[in-house]
Amino acid sequence: MSVGFRAVQWNRAKLVYDAILLAGVALFIGGFLALGFWIEKPSNGPERIGLFIRAFGSCAFLMLTVILAIGPLARLDSRFLPLLYNRRHFGVLTFFVAAAHLWFMLQWYMSQDLLPTLLPELMKGADYAKFIGFPFKALGIAALTILFLMAATSHDYWLAFLTPPVWKALHMLLYPAYGLVTMHVALGAMQSNRHVLVPILFGGAFVAVVALHLVAGWRERKPDKVVGGGWIAVGPPLSIPDKAARIVAAPGGERIAVFRDGAQIGALTNLCAHQNGPIGEGRIINGCVTCPWHGYEYRLADGCAPPPFTEKLATYPVRIRGGIVEVDPKPLAPGTPAAITWTP
Amino acid sequence: MTRSHRIAHRALWPVLAVLVGLGFAMALHLRPPPDTPSAGAEPRATEAAR
User: Taking a C-beta distance cutoff of 8 angstroms, is the pair A78, A92 a contact?
Assistant: First the structure.
């Protein structure tokens, strides 16, 4: 089986993003270790390894928190969109940092010849019935497995192979993974380390991420309100910002992005062909509707990507009646010309 | 995002917030006092994650 897939194209923005990511991780882990050694110098090997476990674990938690905050932040304020652009690299790096946390944990066991006790510890069924005493490492392993799945399928090959809706559904597993990691900390590190900052930092991070998602979700309810069947009134042509879109909901609930480019008005599905990004939140740049997520471009006239690209979006018939732009919620085949020219 | 993803998204976060929020609060409340090993936690296990 083959899928439509093009090799990843590196550009300066991606390289800068990755360089900042790597520098940030190195700075955090280096700073954590330096601070740890300064506050209480480890007196033996296992203590030293324990410091590494904490450094990589805290870094992975912070990275996961930032990754999960980027989505709602970008929806609440478009200035955060550049962070979204290369978020998959962020995710893959998070997996490697979390894997290093596991690797140091295994080192800790091996340094004391305790590795054979790890599996029985995880297999102790009675502990799973406890709350305090629950094998919190199992929660971490479950979260790491999800991160592995996501890192392994993060490439555009898998996006094309699985199709954007399935891929997106799979990658939404990150949300429960974050819950698992939070409980991994609550039942693990928080039980042994009674410093007041531990619950404040970890609990506060979780609350912040949840609040951002709830606020972004709440603000997005309005465009999903469905208004009867038949043609949907969008508003006067000038109510659609020039080189941008107004988003309306079709009776099925899917969104339609009605764009205006000067006198040209056209309607496209709000789902980018690449990753189902919100195309209606993008702008028309150099004559093409540009997805805010990864910059995929489409012509407003027919929803086709300019050559040599082959992606196509479904278009919708539009008309102007009594000075009001209306859109027919029945989609046309992807790539069908449907835009109209408005004469003021 | 498709409509079904948005619906799943809106349903998932409140559920996650309640479940993890309760779990976190309980874990904080039931923490063993200092210098007392927790009832069920393996000392080795907690030590490893510190």
Answer: no
CB contact under 8 A, B38 and A176: no
B22 touches chain A (CB under 8 A): no
pLDDT band at A226 (very low <50, low <70, confident <90, very high): low
Query: Residue A6 phi/psi, 5° resolution?
Result: -115, 145
**Measuring CA to CA, how many Å separate A106 from each of A49, A59, A100, A109, A193?**
10, 18, 10, 5, 20
State the DSSP H helix or E strand holding residue A284, giving kind and residue range, or none if neither: strand A283-285
A194 and B34 in contact by Cβ < 8 A? yes
- Between CA A250 and CA A104 the distance in angstroms is 52
Residue A224 corresponds to which amino acid? D
* Token pair belonging to A238: 């000038």
Question: What CA–CA distance (Å, rounded) separates A238 from A24?
Answer: 45
Which range (A99-108, A249-258, A309-318) has the least confidence? A249-258
Q: Partners of B15 in the beta sheet? A: none
ipTM over 0.95: no
SS3 A259: strand
**Would you state the structure tokens that stand for residue A53, as one six-digit string?**
């476990």
Contact (CB<8Å) B20/A199 = no
Inter-chain CB proximity A182 and B24 less than 8 Å:
yes
List b or e across A37-64, with b for residues whose CB sees 16 or more CB atoms inside 10 angstroms.
Answer: eeeeeeeeebebbbbbbbbbbbbbbbbb
Question: Taking CB atoms and an 8 Å cutoff, what residues of chain A touch B39?
Answer: 130, 132-133
Residue A282 DSSP one-character state: S
Name the residue in chain B with its Cα closest to that of A226. Answer: B3
According to DSSP, the residues that pair with A268 across neighbouring strands are A257, A315
How far, in Å, CA of A3 to CA of A56, rounded? 37
Q: Which residue of A has its CA nearest to B5?
A: A169
What is the 8-class DSSP label of residue A278?
Answer: B
